Amino acid sequence: MWAYETTFYQIYPLGFCGAPRENAAPVAEDELAQAAAAANPDAPIMKIAQWADYLQELGVGAVLINPPLESDSHGYDTRSLRHIDRRLGGDADFAAVCETLHAHGIRVVLDAVFNHVGRGFWAFRDVQERKWDSPYKDWFHISFDGDSCYGDGFWYEGWEGHFELVKLNLQNPAVVDYLLESVRRWAEGFGIDGLRLDVAYMLDRDFMRRLHTFTRELKPDFVLIGETLHGDYNQIVNDEMLDSCTNYECYKGLYSSFNSVNMFEIAHSLHRQFGGDPWCIYRGKHLLSFVDNHDVPRLASILTDKSCLRPAYGMLFGMPGIPCVYYGSEWGIPGEKGGPDGDWALRPALDEPAPNELTAFIKQLAHLRSADDAAARALNYGAYRNVVIQNKQLLFERAYDDATVLVAVNAVNEPYTFGAGELNGSFVDLLADDAPTVELPGSLELAPYEVRYLLRA
């Protein structure tokens, strides 16, 4: 699948485009449709299109756009699953953004929130108004024997105790039909190429099976990626449900290994997931790999030693999975979770790209992944094997058919020389200028914080 051979770039549009944090009062669906009918070149969401040249040059193959649909505030409290948020623009504007990205060879994956909606969602507002008489009362998990913390005159289930997020009843066929019809409209109106399923670990499994079948009929290569935190990813990443999910285990292992100067942690996680032993649990799967996103601190803020930014990205692109870069982190912007701005501190407005040496390195890594050659096949599909594990260094192998790439990472400010039989012979030094062929005598010297990718010649 195309998603296994590319680099994703994640954008949180409400923050990226500098939209107000709270939306205006809810309006009817037909009013949203009328307001969204004509394209506006000055719409805030058009900023994504303005970055298309930069993203193409960076080597991005797909943009993951966090929810751009009409919502109460942060995007995950949806009011309408059919129309773009008025703070960002309209449907025609987002269609133009998707068209521009596609023209640059960049696919579009939309963040889909199917577990819950906001209190401003049109069907929930109907229940608030008509109570028992609402035809939508069974769209949610409601009891008229209690009351909500908002004084609605009925109790309802919220997402993990957050009652601004109203849980949908995914076992109601009318709800499922509404969601699938919304997906059809996104695919036909915007040309999207896949979905990122918010809190996929909570979604009804039968719903995910039906979504899988439905989207494959829309587009045979339509990708489904789930947000998961803990547990067995095989439960939802399989031939009947999702193609991929977020790899939070290795996210934690990545930054923690550098902060504690203990490469054994990430090496253990990678072998546990993708190694060659029969008990390794995710062999052959392609999980979404990342070092930060819209929910966690920026890598530049969470790393104790900021010089580890480069080797951390070197690890990200060398390990199994689909690498995903969060907007602005490719040049190392900071972002702390919490504080007076809450998660908005992780989701800033950016006027234009500000590439630097780190960006150039990530660009090099992204282009290695998207190339049509032996090295890309090994990096995208190769098995994983630890070769040398030290507290401060890691050497691992990615092998696919006749292609083998060795990835060497030095996590500290001192040189180090690896010694291993696997380092004996001719190799293409993939990250060096002009990718020369080098002869190694069974050892490899790394400079401080250096990363090397070596393709066996």
Q: What does it look like?
A:
Helix 7 packs parallel to helix 8, helix 9 runs antiparallel to helix 10 (263-274) and helix 12 (309-318) runs parallel beside helix 13. The chain has helices spanning 13-16, 29-35, 46-50, 52-58, 91-103, 122-130, 173-189, 205-218, 248-259, 263-274, 299-302, 309-318, 357-370, 374-381, and strands at 8-11, 62-65, 107-112, 116-118, 142-143, 155-156, 158-159, 162-167, 194-197, 223-226, 244-245, 288-290, 322-326, 383-389, 393-400, 403-410, 416-429, 437-446, 451-456. By secondary structure, the chain is an alpha/beta fold.
Structure summary:
With 457 residues, this protein is an alpha/beta fold.
Give the helix/strand class. Answer: alpha/beta
Report the C-alpha radius of gyration, rounded.
23 Å
- Helix content estimate: 25-40%
Shape: elongated
State which percent range the strand residues make up: 15-25%
N-to-C CA distance: 27 Å
Discrete helix count: 14
Largest sheet: 8 strands, parallel
Sheet with most strands: strand arrangement: 11-10-9-3-2-1-13-12
